[in-house]
Design a protein that fits this description.
Order of helices and strands: EEHEHEHEEEEHHH
Number of helices: 6
Number of strands: 8
Helix content: 25-40%
Shape: globular
Number of domains: 2
Strand order of the largest sheet: 3-4-6-5
Radius of gyration: 19 Å
CATH superfamily of the largest domain: Uridine Diphospho-n-acetylenolpyruvylglucosamine Reductase, domain 2
Largest sheet: 4 strands, mixed
Distance between the termini: 31 Å
Strand content: 5-15%
CATH architecture of the largest domain: 2-Layer Sandwich
Length: 188
């Protein structure tokens, strides 16, 4: 540790860089999905639809729930925060952060189960609202949360934001339409 002029402790120069490099190497070795810590990608993911700008340490594109679990576990071991991101359409800044961003749009964007009689669908967090509605349309069904960014907004991001939309007076918010969420936490 070194001290600044006010006497406060701060990490010695390079300490965080080494820790971050170890995390990047472990993520690359332990995940099937892509791992990007380059400056260009960090710049792309430093903003969302809000007015905020925060450059992340890196971005992971998980291909499976196992990748998500492993990325969260490794980040936790290194004391690095994780932000799960859908499309970045939120105007509140919750899809940006200084830690590792997990972008769910590439490998976690499918329909896992569908029961038209029960009007129940199980999806991965990266599925885009318009894509889900295109899937449901042949059955005479639709997901009623109608956000303005439906061509880009993901269900995971919408759940995290408790999105509403132009039909919220009639259909409510996300919380009224989500029966359950499987989440990965740093402590298991």
């Amino acid at each position: 540790m070194s001290h600044d002029r006010a006497g406060s402790q701060r990490p010695r120069p390079g300490a965080d860089t080494r820790r971050e490099a170890r995390l990047e190497a472990r993520l690359r070795a332990g995940l099937r999905g892509e791992v990007r810590f380059d400056r260009f990608t960090r710049g792309l993911y430093s903003t969302d639809a809000s007015i905020y700008q925060v450059e992340p340490l890196g971005v992971v594109f998980p291909e499976s729930a196992g990748d998500v679990r492993r990325a969260v576990e490794l980040a936790g071991e290194h004391g690095i925060s994780v932000v799960v991101r859908g499309a970045g359409t939120s105007q509140s800044g919750q899809s940006i952060g200084r830690g590792v961003i997990l972008d769910t749009r590439r490998g976690l964007d499918g329909v896992l189960d569908f029961d038209p009689a029960a009007r129940r669908v199980v999806v991965e967090p990266g599925i885009v609202l318009d894509r889900l509605n295109a899937f449901l349309r042949p059955y005479g069904l639709f997901f009623p949360i109608d956000v303005a960014t439906a061509s880009r907004a993901t269900l995971g991001g919408m759940a995290g934001n408790n999105s509403a939309g132009s039909r919220s007076v009639r259909y409510g918010h996300m919380v009224e339409h989500v029966r359950g969420i499987e989440a990965v936490l740093a402590d298991g």
